[in-house]
Amino acid sequence: MGIQNDDYLGRCSLDISQVVRFGRLDTWQTLQQAKHGKVELRLSWHRLSSDVSELSRAISETLLIKTGELSSAVLSVYIDSCKKLPNARTQSRPDPYLTVTVGRKTETSAVQMRTDDPVYEIGYSFLVQNPEIDNLEIKVLDSKTGGQLGQLTYGISSLLKQKDLSMITQPLMLQRSGPESKIIMSLQLKILKEAIKEEDYEEEPAAETPREPSPAPPPATPPSPPVTVDDLDTHKPVPPLTDPVTVLPEPVLRNIEDALLDSSSQKSVPLEHIEKEVDTPQEYQPPTGRDSPKLVHRTSSLTTSAGEAGLGRILLSLRYSMQNQTLFVVVHKIMHIPLKDPANVPDPYVKLYLLPGRSKDSKRKTVVVKDSCMPEYDEQFEWVIPLAELHSRQVEVTVATHKGFLGGSPVIGQVVVHLNQYDFREAKTMWFDLMPETSPRD
């Protein structure tokens, strides 16, 4: 059985740097190339240790998960050469090659032609489930006859007694081979130790050391009163429509990302948290050209605004992974979708396409939130885009409803995000005003 015999149900990819950063990650990922579906991933990042005392803990962690497929160590194998191999046939030198096996993984070397002293100078790495019982198996084979020229079975547990869990450039006698046949190689074993972030790890204080009482929380700041029509008539200044983009500082972005990745709590990122930590807005230059839609961003303090077109606003986060050549877009929430008929509250959802092209493979879609003018999603989507193409692409974001909206159309509003307007060396979290639909519906 294989994927060619099964129905393809979708795929997903994840930026490994997130796992490295948090040490441990439990997240739900939306399947790509699928109509719907999510997969839960639980990942942990491990560092390599030469401390043999860490092995029992590593093995215990794999046993707790009740699967024999997880590993507790990594074995590095470097094979320099073989010496005085027997001939495969009379008066004919062999064409030797190696197979190197640990567990279910086997590596095969290149063939060395017509020699009984082959030089390989090749290295491999293997995940080891249990170094106390697993073996390294090496076979020397002749490519012309398929016959075996020698073999070696090495108990990985022998490395546990060596300094730094290493064996450096040692000749070992081959079994079922010539009387002087040897293989020269080096081995190094490393124990996998979970890399727990120091800021996430709190050690219990000793019994004799009392815990200091936590300071009382500061009094809550009373919320700002909503903007009313009367307020607008008292000669208070009204902000211009072309408000600047607000770029969140890095600590705030990390807090937002932490909240999004914490799938166990399933909490959304509160808008109030974003509003209180916004720095001085930076100027945003909208894309030029007659066909480029005007992306209007309003400062987060104007929580009662429905945007320039009165169709609401959408909060998005943008991030690009240089390592994986992947664009990540998080759809946080929509605010102030207009309600024309109280008996017909919209069921909003968000569709995203990559432009130009607008292919079905680039389509992404959030869940539908029933009966809401202030829906929250906190869903992350991703596209693999080469860095050279990034600034020539756009993301079309369309908010629609399962029910008919104004004039019977399912589309509430739309915005096209031009990626050439952003420096993706850091993440961006921004509000965009929804505008009337300009792109064709699918």
From TrEMBL:
GO terms for biological process: endoplasmic reticulum-plasma membrane tethering; lipid transport. GO terms for molecular function: calcium ion binding; calcium-dependent phospholipid binding; phosphatidylcholine binding; phosphatidylethanolamine binding; phosphatidylinositol binding. PROSITE patterns: C2 (PS50004). Gene3D superfamilies: C2 domain (2.60.40.150). Residues 199-246, 276-301 are annotated as: Disordered. GO terms for cellular component: endoplasmic reticulum membrane. Residues 212-226 have a biased composition (Pro residues). InterPro entries: C2_dom, C2_domain_sf, C2C_KIAA1228, Ext_Synaptotagmin_C2B, Extended_Synaptotagmin. Residues 51-178, 310-432 form the C2 domain. Pfam families: C2 (PF00168). It comes from the Eukaryota. Coiled coil: none annotated. This is C2 domain-containing protein. It comes from Heliothis virescens. The lineage of its organism: Eukaryota, Metazoa, Ecdysozoa, Arthropoda, Hexapoda.
